[in-house]
Structure formats: structure tokens, C-alpha cells
Inverse folding.
């Protein structure tokens, strides 16, 4: 059975918004597709595992973000190499911000990021909270929930994940949401994102297999429950 | 002044009279409450407020105290103003010795601007509805700020590291309650609920002398250490989390009722029955039992699963996404449902019935039926044989409680 190595960054610090759900979704779907998922938890001070096929990162509290900042800078070069090699990644909220160039907090403190996404984030006073929908070229409509005070501005050449059709997205102003560099995705959408967007989850698995230069015929999974939650998200008035 | 705002009404929606009074007489609440000879006690924290407040109030009453409380569950200012204005005599007096208020973490600190409480009982700080209350550090800060306004004493959970740390800044006496080290695994703190190994995950007993310690529990019986004595209590309230809450209530009782012996306090607390929708039991027409449990956040859902699920129970889960429930469903993914694999989840219901079923599917569980309409779901559920447990988010619980008391079942 093809092993698939999933790396979850800072699970004890960056886990605020049900981020465990993204990992569980990849793990289960990998099994359902006949793959053998191997989960690696990356904690502060660890070395990255030898084989990494997918990387996940979640949202965190301000205090947690400060705690991991020095550590993420330490492994920044290795993460860059993985992105360049085509490893798919999903970075949500706080980790998305740290994958950008920098984060300037509401009180003016500057937190340097690792610059995988050419974006920068400024702390806002009002949190942007609510159900959100995003149209993407590669993964169809994404439904999620956003809850962030940071306003993220993508630089001119930076590819976006998609366009907001409901909610605020990156900054509440330019209708952009998230960022994509090679196969690394940054986004504010949680909920968590993957269970309600199985197409995105399977795309990450397919990209991981492509990176591994191996093919597996994906199984047909019954996603009727996700169809129902997506229908609910589509018709929800709030 | 108080005469002018004396309002009467049988309405259970408590907020309207409060709004009227607030507009007519600013400062009314502080003036009235300052007349109470034994002042105000606040019970706050993420989980356990309602049941713990009920324990405190009933034990105080059993010892002859006249207690004012916000027992309708209306824990906003206006609700409290309504309570006060409805209870005041025609001459504007409050015929009570003491007030015990349950206040949520967001509101409690605001309330302390009206009046400084004599005592604050701080139960726990856990990740709650993030879209309403913010991150757990924010919640802990709010609770800590409230705690530090107490003028006579603080009662705090020694096993909640954020709150216990904040209590060190207190200038008034602090009484700690906690659980024995070997029991910590049953009362996980916020960080342990989601942690997956690594240095932060190790369970560590608080190195603090405890006024009340939960030493052991088995079934409904708990053993406490108080005043160097070991005391047994068989509680009428259910759920293992309430053994911990009762320890907090007992520590507060020691401060408020210094002349009452520890064994008497334990006997009295054992008699307190479950609060509205918090492990409340109903007998259904087919003479099976149904237990209704509020679940609000990962910690309370996890405690509910650990306390109420037996090998032969049938389960229904009711999840709404009104503002009072949380719009965001992320919290469902911080709960491990694998313990339900041994039994059957008959139904999911509520506005987020499908989301709940989807969540279960990723723990290899199949909801037998998805019925968003709560009334239809309850009818179908009640017709099933055997003992039943319902886990319900806040507004779903209110709806189910109303249906159950109206006729679907009768209260035990």
C-alpha cells in the first residue's frame, strides 16, 4: 500500500478552529482511497521528518503565534524547498499569516514570516467573523467559516486562492481570499475546510501522489453528506 | 425611586422589564444590590455555571439564608434587573440576605462595574463559542478580571492553569478546589482536549494546597477531602464534571457558612437535583427514560459523552447554529466521538443535522437518520425502545425541553 506522509505543524499551539478536522479528513479519505496515511506531528524544536508528502497548519491564538514564530523561521528554508518541489500544503488563518512576509499586529509589533506567500497582514480592530463562500478556479466553490482580525494584502503578482462571494476573505476590501504558491494554499477558511470541501481534500491527495511520482486510482467516495452540508451553506441566509 | 420601577409580570422572557428599568433609572441595580447584608456572589466560567449556582443557592437556602438568584437562566444585566425589580418590596427593599448570580464570561466583568462582588467562584476557562467569546486566552482574561474584583474572597479551580495563575495576583484570600492527581485524566483542561503529545500534553497536578479536593468517584458517589476529613456524597446531579463543580461549590460554602460542618454541607449538596436541561431525566410514554444534556463546547460535549453514554443507550444529537449556539461548527471537530462506535446514533437533528452527521462519518459512525426538524426527530426518537440520551446545543436544548415538558415526556 502506498504510504502517504502527512505533516501537521504545531498541533498543540495552532489548533483553535477545529483544525484537527482537516487532518482527520485527509487521513480518512487517504484510507478510503486505499492509501496508507502516516501522520507526523511537528512540535516546537523538532526536526522535519525525512519524507513529507502533505503539510497542514492551523489557526492559533495571538500568544501561540508569538510562541511558534522563532521556530517557523528556523525551518523556513526547508518548508520553501518542499513548496518548490511541489508538496501540497494547506495553511489556515494564523499559519497562513506566518507563511506570508510579515504580520504587523494591531499595536504595531512586527512578526516576520517565512515569505512563501507574497502577502502581508495588518492587525485590524474588528474581527471579521461569519460564514463565507469562495469561488476558485481549481477546486470549485469553497464553503467555510472565517474568524480573523488580520487583514491580509496579496502583492500584485501573488496568485489568489479565489474570489469571495460571501464574507470578507483576505481583508474585507478587495474580494480576494487566500493565496496559492505552487501547490501551497493559504486561506482564512476554517469550519474546518476540508470535510465540507471534499474536492479540495482529494486534490491535495492527488497533488501529493503526483509529487511522489506514483499513481493510485482514487476510489469513488460517497460524499452525499458533504453535498447536504454544502447545500445548507449555499442556501443559508446568515 | 424603587417604588417607581416596581414591576410585576409573569412573563418568563425576563429581558423586557429589565430594559424598561434600565432606561428609567440608571444605577438602579447597584443601589438595590448594595442593600443586601451579605452582598453578591458571582459564579462564572465556561462550563458548569448553572448547575453550580443551583447547588450554592439551594445549600444556602437549606441553611436559612434568603437568596436572590437569576434562576431563569437569564444571565444578562437586564435579566438581573428584571429579577431585582420583580422581587423588590413596595417600599423598595430587597427581602434577601445575599445574591448569587450566574454570569457568563463575557458579561461578568461588565457587571462588576455595577457592584463589586464579595466572592467570585471561577470554575474553568475553556474554548467556547469562538465567534462570540473569542479565544481561550481572551476568555480566561475576562474571567480572571472578574475574579480579581472580589472584595472578600476568590474560589478558583486549581487545575485550570490559566485561572489559578491569575489568582496569584489576588489581594483577598483565595480558596482552591481541585481533583486528586489520579483523576486529572477525567477532567482534561483546554489545552489537553486538543493536544497530541509533546511537552504541553502531560497532565500535572497543581501544586497548591486545596480547600476541597475530589479524591475519588464511582457511579454517582464522590469522596471529598475537606477540613482533613474524607466525606462521601451520592449526588443527585449527574455527570462526572459535576463532581468537580460540587468541589467548587463546597469551597464557596465553607467561606459563606463557616459555622456549618463539612459533613452537613456535603449532605446538603448531594440533595441538589439537575438543572434545566443539564442531565435532566424524563420518563417517556413507553416508560423508557430520556436524559437531556446541554453541550456547548468541546469540553462539555466530551464530559457529556464520558458521563452519559452506556453500552445500551440510544443517542440523538441536536445541533443548531443560532447565535446562542455558535454559528461556527468547528467545535464539533475538537470532540472525539469514537466512544459512540460501540452504540447507535439514531438521529441527528437541528439546523446543522447534516453537519453533525458528516462529523460522525469521519469517526466511522453512521447516523441512522438525519431529520433537521427537532419536533419530528424527537417524536421518532421517543418511539424507539430502551434508554435514551440526547446531546443538544443551547437553543436545541431549549426547544427539546419545551417539547418534553409539554407532552412528549414527563419530568421524573
Amino acid at each position: 500500500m502506498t504510504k502517504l506522509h502527512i505533516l501537521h505543524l504545531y498541533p498543540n499551539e495552532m489548533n483553535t478552529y477545529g483544525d484537527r478536522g482537516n487532518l482527520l479528513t485527509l487521513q480518512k479519505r487517504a484510507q478510503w482511497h486505499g492509501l496508507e496515511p502516516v501522520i507526523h506531528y511537528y512540535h516546537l524544536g523538532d526536526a522535519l521528518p525525512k519524507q513529507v508528502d502533505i503539510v497542514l497548519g492551523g489557526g492559533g491564538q495571538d500568544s501561540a503565534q508569538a510562541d511558534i514564530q522563532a521556530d517557523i523561521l528556523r525551518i523556513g528554508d526547508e518548508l520553501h524547498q518542499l513548496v518548490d518541489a511541489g508538496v501540497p500544503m494547506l495553511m489556515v488563518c494564523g499559519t497562513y499569516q506566518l507563511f506570508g512576509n510579515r504580520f504587523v499586529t494591531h499595536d504595531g509589533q512586527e512578526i516576520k514570516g517565512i515569505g512563501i506567500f507574497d502577502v502581508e497582514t495588518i492587525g485590524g480592530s474588528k474581527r471579521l467573523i461569519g460564514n463565507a463562500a469562495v469561488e476558485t478556479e481549481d477546486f470549485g466553490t469553497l464553503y467555510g467559516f472565517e474568524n480573523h482580525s488580520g487583514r491580509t494584502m496579496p502583492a500584485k503578482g501573488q496568485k489568489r486562492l479565489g474570489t469571495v462571494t460571501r464574507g470578507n476573505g483576505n481583508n474585507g476590501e478587495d474580494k480576494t481570499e487566500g493565496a496559492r504558491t505552487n501547490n501551497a494554499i493559504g486561506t482564512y477558511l476554517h469550519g474546518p475546510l476540508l470535510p465540507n470541501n471534499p474536492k479540495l481534500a482529494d486534490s491535495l491527495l492527488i497533488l501529493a501522489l503526483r509529487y511522489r511520482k506514483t499513481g493510485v486510482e482514487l476510489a469513488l467516495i460517497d460524499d452525499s453528506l458533504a453535498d447536504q452540508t454544502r447545500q445548507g451553506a449555499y442556501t443559508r441566509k446568515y | 425611586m424603587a417604588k417607581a420601577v416596581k414591576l410585576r409580570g409573569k412573563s418568563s422572557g425576563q429581558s423586557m422589564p429589565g430594559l424598561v428599568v434600565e432606561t428609567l433609572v440608571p444605577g438602579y441595580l447597584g443601589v438595590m444590590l448594595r442593600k443586601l447584608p451579605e452582598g453578591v456572589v458571582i459564579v462564572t466560567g465556561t462550563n458548569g455555571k448553572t448547575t453550580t449556582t443551583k447547588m450554592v443557592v439551594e445549600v444556602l437556602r437549606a441553611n436559612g439564608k434568603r437568596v436572590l438568584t437569576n434562576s431563569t437562566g437569564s444571565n444578562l444585566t437586564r435579566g438581573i434587573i428584571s429579577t431585582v425589580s420583580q422581587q423588590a418590596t413596595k417600599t423598595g427593599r430587597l427581602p434577601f440576605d445575599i445574591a448569587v448570580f450566574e454570569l457568563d464570561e463575557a458579561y461578568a466583568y461588565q457587571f462588576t462595574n455595577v457592584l463589586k462582588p464579595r466572592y467570585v467562584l471561577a470554575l474553568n476557562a475553556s474554548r467556547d463559542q469562538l465567534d462570540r467569546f473569542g479565544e481561550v486566552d481572551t476568555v480566561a482574561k475576562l474571567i480572571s478580571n472578574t475574579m480579581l474584583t472580589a472584595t472578600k474572597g476568590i474560589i478558583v479551580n486549581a487545575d485550570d492553569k490559566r485561572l489559578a495563575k491569575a489568582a496569584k495576583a489576588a489581594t483577598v484570600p483565595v480558596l482552591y478546589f481541585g481533583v486528586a492527581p489520579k483523576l486529572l485524566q477525567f477532567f482534561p483542561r483546554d489545552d489537553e482536549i486538543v493536544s497530541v503529545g509533546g511537552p504541553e500534553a502531560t497532565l500535572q497536578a497543581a501544586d497548591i494546597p486545596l480547600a476541597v479536593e475530589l479524591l475519588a468517584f464511582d457511579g454517582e458517589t464522590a469522596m471529598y477531602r475537606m477540613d482533613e476529613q474524607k466525606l462521601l456524597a451520592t449526588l443527585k446531579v449527574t455527570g462526572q464534571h459535576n463532581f468537580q463543580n460540587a468541589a467548587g461549590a463546597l469551597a464557596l460554602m465553607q467561606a459563606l457558612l463557616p459555622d456549618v460542618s463539612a459533613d452537613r454541607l456535603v449532605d446538603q449538596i448531594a440533595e441538589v437535583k439537575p438543572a434545566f436541561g443539564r442531565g435532566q431525566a424524563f420518563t417517556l410514554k413507553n416508560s423508557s427514560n430520556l436524559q437531556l444534556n446541554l453541550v456547548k463546547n468541546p469540553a462539555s460535549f466530551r464530559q457529556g459523552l464520558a458521563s452519559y453514554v452506556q453500552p445500551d443507550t440510544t443517542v440523538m444529537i441536536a445541533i443548531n447554529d443560532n447565535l446562542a449556539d455558535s454559528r461556527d461548527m468547528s467545535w464539533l471537530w475538537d470532540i472525539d466521538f469514537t466512544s459512540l462506535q460501540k452504540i447507535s446514533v439514531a438521529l441527528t437533528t437541528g439546523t446543522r443535522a447534516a453537519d453533525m452527521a458528516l462529523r460522525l462519518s469521519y469517526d466511522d459512525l453512521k447516523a441512522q437518520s438525519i431529520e433537521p426538524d427537532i419536533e419530528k426527530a424527537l417524536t421518532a426518537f421517543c418511539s424507539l425502545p430502551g434508554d435514551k440520551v440526547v446531546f443538544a446545543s443551547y437553543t436545541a436544548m431549549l426547544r427539546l425541553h419545551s417539547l418534553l415538558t409539554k407532552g412528549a415526556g414527563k419530568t421524573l
Notes: The two ends of chain B are 44 Å apart (CA to CA). The interface with chain A takes residues 127, 130-131, 134-138, 191, 194-201, 327-334, 351-352, 354-355, 357-359, 361-364, 370 of chain B (CB under 8 Å). Chain B has two domains: 3-270, 278-411. The domain at 278-411 of chain B is CATH 3.90.190.20 (Protein-Tyrosine Phosphatase; Chain A).
